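Task card 7
Instruction: Convert sequence to structure tokens.
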Amino acid sequence: MNDTDALIAADRGQDATEIHLVNKEGFGNWAKRLSASQRAFLQAQKFDGSGYQVGIVPNGDSWFAVGGVADPHDVSSWCLAKLAEELPEGTYRLADDDIDSGIAPALHGWQTAQYRFERYVKNEKAVGPRIFLTKQVAAIDPAIAEAQAEMLVRDLVNTPAEDMGPAALEAQFERLAKSFDAKLEVTRGDALEQGYPMVHAVGRAAARHHAPRIMHLTWGKDGDPVVAIVGKGVCFDSGGLDVKSASGMKLMKKDMGGAAHAIALAELVMKAGLRLRLHVLVPAVENAISGNSFRPGDVLNSRKGLTVEIGNTDAEGRLILGDALTRASEENPELMVDFATLTGAARVALGPDLPALMTRDDETAAQLIAAGKDCDDEAWRLPLPEAYNEWLSSDIADTNNAHDNSFAGASVAGLFLDKFVGEGIDWAHFDTYAWRPSPKPGRSKGGAAYGLRATFRMLKGRYGSR
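Output:
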């Protein structure tokens, strides 16, 4: 992960190259202040103020930069991102203090634009850090924390399954427990059969060094409102005996993206010292194929006590989440949020950029959507229609884990999870892709966080800091 601490800093008058932000509508008037040669220089670069354009303008023995944005006085998370990607190594500040006064949202994209995943090969041609100076000192630490969380998700999801198996996710929990003086309980291997039978069934076919486990981290003061965060940690998904195709399996290192979100969100909550009692649960498995794989038609017990007929072994994420949601419900949380790379149906409906949000409570949905709009991390709500529960019926068990038709796959998966959430609990479920198939400014191809900042902003609004 990149050292984001060095990418934004307080402006105390250090030497820096100036950046001017303009839009296409205002570019003509702005350009009148330039010399004829400077205007010619921008014209040669085909710069006209359009969004995400970057221009370099000579100025005597020095130079300054120009960035095209939609509105210089109403910036987004990404309006500085193209500048951060394309400018030379160096230190920069905005030329206009009035624009700097509202620049806080754009500090995120300045940092994430400089993300590089270099665990296995270093980009020798990569440009050194571009440091941004701002007078908005109070915005710096929160911006760094959120960018670090985003880049942690990218790192975890981008890492191949051999190096990001259940043990590696456990190591992330150990890091958090040590850093924030939190309590960590881990149940592994065959010990899962008693308390987490569906986690055990899904993960038992994996090799010993990828043995299944569930991590449960607890942090905060007794007496504070209890909030639970749950993440799907399928470190690789072959599909089990209902095996995926080669193309379907290609990106399945990202199937632990929900766990990555949960880990990153937990770290944000603890760094900010939110006034809550936090429980984080991640079941971590590899859905492998072996002589002891669970089978289509098997009936699994669950921690909840419900029996589950297996209609499809490739609908395994909801099984491990079922046990984890049941355990989290036992803490009687005021709010429970889970993240999961759960269904292809959500992607068909919403594409890669919008996570599907399902909630029991309309106000919680509204708060999460509003928080996402405020920080350019928007979710889209899908329903949990009670009428579709009949599609999960089973002749021999309390429920099936998959339905036979092709309708409403994301919502039906959400209805399955809902069976394992305690009665009366305010629960929100994010069905996220955790992957960006093509790059955009500030958002690299590969692992991606969706709904992470929205949820953190909502939690900050609800609970505040100590």
